Amino acid sequence: MLIKLAWRSLWRRKRRTFITCFTVAGGILLSVIFTGSGDYTYTQIIDTSATMGLGHITVEPKGYNDIPTLQKRMKDASLVRETALEIPRVTAAAERITGMAMFASAAKSVGGVFFAVDPAHETAKINTFVRAIVEGEMPPDSDGRKIVIGAKMAEKLKIGLGKKLVYTMTDVDGEIVSEVGRVSGIFKTGVEEVDGAFAIIPINRVRKMLKYAPDEASMVAVFIDDQRKVDEVGGVITSALGNDNLEVLTWKTTQKEVSGMIKVDRAGNYLSQFLVGLLIAAGILNTIFMSVLERQREFGVMLAVGMKPGSLFRLVVLESLFIAIVGLIMGIILTAPFFYYLYSHGLDLRQLVDNMEGYAVGGTMVDPILKVRLFKESAIAILTGVFGLTILAGLYPAWRAGRQAPVESLKTI
Amino acid sequence: MPKRIIRSAARGLTAAILTVALSAGAMAHAETPQEKATRILERVDDMWRGKSSRAVFSMEVRTKRYKRKLSLEAWSKGKDLSLVIIKAPVKERGTATLKSGTSIYTYLPKTDRTIRLTSGMMMGSWMGSHFTNDDLVKESRMSDDYDVSIAFDGERDGQQIYEFELIPKPDAAVVWGKITMAVRKDDLMPIVSTYFDEDMERMRTMAFSDIKTMGGRKFPATLRVTPEDKPDEYTEVVYHKMEFDISLSDNLFSISSLKRSR
Fold first, then answer.
1. How far apart are CA A310 and CA A172, in angstroms?
2. Taking the CB of residue A116, how many other CB atoms lie within 10 A of it?
3. Which domains are delineated in chain B?
4. A320-352 b/e with 16+ CB inside 10 Å = b?
5. Chain A positions in Cβ-Cβ contact with residue B134 (cut-off 8 Å)
6. Of B56, B52, B91, B53, which Cα lies nearest the Cα of B72?
7. Nearest CA in chain B to A161
8. Cβ of B195 and A106 within 8 Å?
9. Interface touch A145/B118, C-beta < 8 Å
10. Residues of B in contact with A166 (CB under 8 A)
11. Which of helix, strand or coil describes residue A234?
């Protein structure tokens, strides 16, 4: 009865209600696109950052993250890797040694960062550099002298495929050691700092050079299927390893620039969504309040014939609930085509901004194509927000409606 | 990077040039040309490693941006220890480089700090010159890193010369594709060394001249390094005074003596 009344009174002013619902729908569109692009972009940045060497989760010697040096190394790296691979959600794991090195050719020398890897365990999926190889290929084995360098470094050293370079690093005893490498591949990520400074070297070659034992490494990088589960999976790995000399860290700790950037960006996103929500709520408040004031006489009659003030309150709240529901349905209809397009095709930002190829945040490549994904928790947050704000906006008018003395109400207009 | 040459150069900084000169004297017997070449160069290598030496020399560095001239004094003992100290200009006086084994330390009197060079700094320029820090450190034998042969034997520019060709072994940590070294036939004085990359492009030339007798040994007192890609630039080292096989204490080559050196 009350529901029917609320529904009917809502549609007495079709245009106004429609416009209000449309505002709600617009709000839904905005927050879905905002949140969706955030969900997509953050996941993409996190996943890309993970493939730049450290993984979603890094198992490393204690204290390595604070002061990484080549002296700090973990034993039984392959055992750690196998243990990690057994754990649910873990999609890949790889032993790596990383540190600073000097790369020299006959023409020049440049300082840089090396990742020593086992080529058998590296795939395009877990390694940005493998993915970005534009010429040549990964070294065929982990003992050889083949090496993969960035396009910018190759340019600086004035060398190409098949040419040699000498790399120099400091071994575990602090001695300076050099080795000769042959370029088997060249990668190009598009980020100059990365292309100019990074090199991939077979891990056993580096172990010999640095006087590491055959099973030692700087870290084991672990990759999982869903970046949101890092803490959970990290905990499982910690207890599976049960080794006090090792530390299990997530990308939030090992890739601070990225996590900091995401935090700031996400906070900004929430703030702007909150402001939009507030504006929409003010609009709804305005509409409902107007309709309540308009119907003061009517409410007075209702109260006079015996309606309880509480029922009036519920009536108005129901009206705002209907606005929310209708708004939501309209919102879904409105958002669906945009969402679908952005989900499947994405918006190529390169058309809007020149020079977007190689756009990096915190040293991590960002896909210049804007796409959206909506996590379940984000969708629930949006729904809660819409209903919460709409009902909140209806509360005050509802309270006013129920409080009016019938005589006073009848006197107005 | 430019090991051999540099090595010679660097040693030159301490005693290298000498060695080259001396080595030349060694090549008299005749086996296969390859063996002969190797043996001669090994001699040279060994001679470099004189027991000890003291040298007073100047170094002039000319680059596009600046030109500077330093007066230096250097000591060496065995193959592992050497010390170079700047004597002039006053502004840089006391700046010292100590090589001990494969480590290099730099002492800056202005900040009273001793820095141990890391691997990343090894390819950096030594005191702004065209030598790298790495040039000062490399100690392996030429014959370990290179296959040596005599590429030319005859007259060039009015002199009878040998030209050695040094091809790096595939596993040697050497950036060069080839090094050639011309040596005067009669007294085995080095004339010029040329460094090539793998495409056989010339990268660097080291020319020796001004042969003198100092400290009882004959050697070229001037050596000049010219990078081929910047022909206007060079580093020239001129020896003014040399002493050999003098007695030096190991204490001289300690970090604490770096501070005392000024």
1. 79
2. 27
3. 3-260 (2.50.20.10)
4. bbbbbebbbebbeebbeeebeebeeebeeeeee
5. 104, 168
6. B56
7. B198
8. yes
9. no
10. 1, 173-175
11. helix
Q: What's at B47, amino acid-wise?
A: M
Across the A:B interface, residue pairs with CB atoms under 8 Å apart total 72
Which of B98, B102, B101, B100 has its CA nearest to residue B126? Answer: B98
Neighbours of A141 (CB within 10 A): 13
Q: Is A265 helix (H, G, I), strand (E, B) or coil?
A: helix
Q: Which amino acid is at A404?
A: Q
In contact, B93 and B87? CB cutoff 8 Å: yes
CB within 8 Å: B120 and A101? yes
Global confidence as pTM: 0.75
Angle subtended by helix axes A376-403 and A14-49, to nearest 10? 150
| Chain B residues within an 8 Å CB radius of A165 | 175
Q: Which residue do the tokens 């440049």 mark?
A: A110
Contacts of B119 (CB under 8 A, 6+ apart): A100, A101, A102, A168, A169, A170, A176, A177
What residue has token string 């600086």? A156
pLDDT in tens, chain A (413 residues): 788 888 888 888 888 888 889 988 998 898 888 888 888 888 888 888 888 888 999 999 998 888 888 888 898 888 999 999 999 999 999 999 999 898 988 888 888 999 999 998 888 888 888 888 999 999 988 888 999 999 999 999 999 898 989 998 888 887 788 889 999 999 998 888 889 999 999 999 999 999 999 899 999 999 999 888 889 999 999 998 888 889 999 998 888 888 888 899 889 988 988 888 888 888 888 888 888 888 888 888 888 888 888 888 888 889 888 988 999 999 999 999 988 888 888 877 766 665 555 556 555 666 677 788 888 888 898 889 888 888 888 888 888 887 777 677 667 65
Six token digits for residue A274: 């909150």
Q: Hey, what are B19's tokens? A: 């060695």
- Please say whether the beta carbons of A81 and A167 come within 8 A: no
CB A252 within 8 A of CB A94: no
Determine if the peptide bond prior to A139 is cis (ω within 30°). Answer: no
Nearest to B174 among A166, A169, A175 (CB): A166
Considering CB atoms only, which of B103, B123, B197 is closest to A106? Answer: B197
- What is the token pair recorded at B180? 């050639």
**What is the rounded distance in angstroms from the CA atom of residue B176 to the CA atom of residue B167?**
8
DSSP B198: T
B1:A106 CB<8 A: yes
Q: Of B136, B128, B5, B129, which Cα lies nearest the Cα of B76?
A: B136
